Structure formats: structure tokens, C-alpha cells
Description:
By secondary structure, the protein is an alpha+beta fold. It has 5 helices and 9 strands. The chain has a 4-stranded antiparallel sheet, covered by helices on one side. The protein has a 3-stranded antiparallel sheet with strand order 2-5-4. It has a two-stranded antiparallel sheet with strand order 8-9. Strand 8 and strand 9 form a beta hairpin. Helix 2 packs antiparallel against helix 3. The longest helix has 14 residues.
Amino acid sequence: MKPRIPAPLQIAHHCKSTHNTPKLGTSPFSFPPRPTGRQFSTTPCPHNWLAPKRGHTQKNRKGRPHVPTGGSTKGTTVVWGDYGLRMRDHDRRISAKQLSVAEETIKRRLRGERYRLFTRVCANIGVYTKGNEVRMGKGKGSFDYWAARVPVSRILFELKGDNLHEQVVRDAFRLAGNKLPGLYEFARKGDPPVMGITKVDGGATLEEMKKPRIKLPMDATAGRLPATAAV
């Protein structure tokens, strides 16, 4: 003899079975809801250019900006934007705080305009310091801040905008250059590259500048000297 199921439980069991039965034309498998964002997007993820992603892992040496032997024009021209800010005096180390202040200065000057700002350097070098009146030795010191090694004639910022007057961009880069150490100049898209502090334009070419200097013989060198008056 089968056990008798109460009527309310029979009704609940019938509703549950009919609810789980797949309808005609639908799949019996349930899938999770689709995410609202795009899985594969061409838009780059925002990154922090004032600190490396790896964080503080090892102590960096002070070092110097790397310049290839024979000279290089890498990073001296405007690539993505229409205008750029270029260092023109000497390579140096710029802290992340100074770069952040320069970026905020440009954004404050161009408030209300339609533009896009590109950064060509990143602060990925750790700077370590010691306290005052500390004896020599016993380690390099503790981490202080992040900095960027910027070689001479390197583009720091690029800017591109719609209906943006050049004089307004010049003024924004002038204010940003005042917040940064060193001397800076305004660059446009299409300007010639720079090797060291020499612009590769006019009669000078990159191949000729990379050639070693030719030592002239003594006769040719003496012929260029001005003639001396006889005593």
C-alpha cells in the first residue's frame, strides 16, 4: 500500500514539475546572464602612469637615462597628438609628484575644451632616501617616491583636440613646463626629430650624423688656418 500524500503537497509538487518543464523551442539548459560590459574591447584599460604595476619589489640604482651609442631620435617627435611638450636642456630625473602637478596644470588650463592628453613617460624608478644625520652604511635607505628618467629632447605630453587653438595649447604647455624642472619647448606634429640637442632637418641627415668624424690630414687642416703677417 502506497503512502498517501496530502493534497497541498500534491498541488505544490505539480506546480514545481510544470515550472521546470522546458517549453517548446527553448533549451533545457540554463545559462548565466550576460555581463553588461564588452568582453573583448579595443579601448585600453586605464593605467596608473605615476607608479609601476608591479609595485615596490627591489631597490633601483640611481642610474642615468639610457641613450644608445651613436645617438638616437626615439621619442623626440609627436606621434599620437597634434602638439607636444619636449625637454630641451639636459636629461634628468623627474618625480611622479612633479609629473602629476604638470598634468593637473594642463587640465586646469584647458577646462571646458574637447581634447585628449597623452603621456609619453612613466614613473617606474624607485627613489630611496635616508634621514638626516645618519651614518654611512647599513643599507640603501627606505623607499621615498617614484620617479621617471627622462633623456634630453624626449616628448613628455602630447595633446590632440577638436577646434583647439594652438596658442591655447602653447599657454597650457608653458604653465606645465614652469612646474617641471628644466627647460622645455613646444613641438608640433610633423616637426623633424632631434638627436641630442641637434634637430635633424635642413642639410643634416640621420645617417650623416651617425658617421664617425673623419680625421683630416695635417696639410688640409693647416690650409684652413688664416695666414699670419710677416714680421
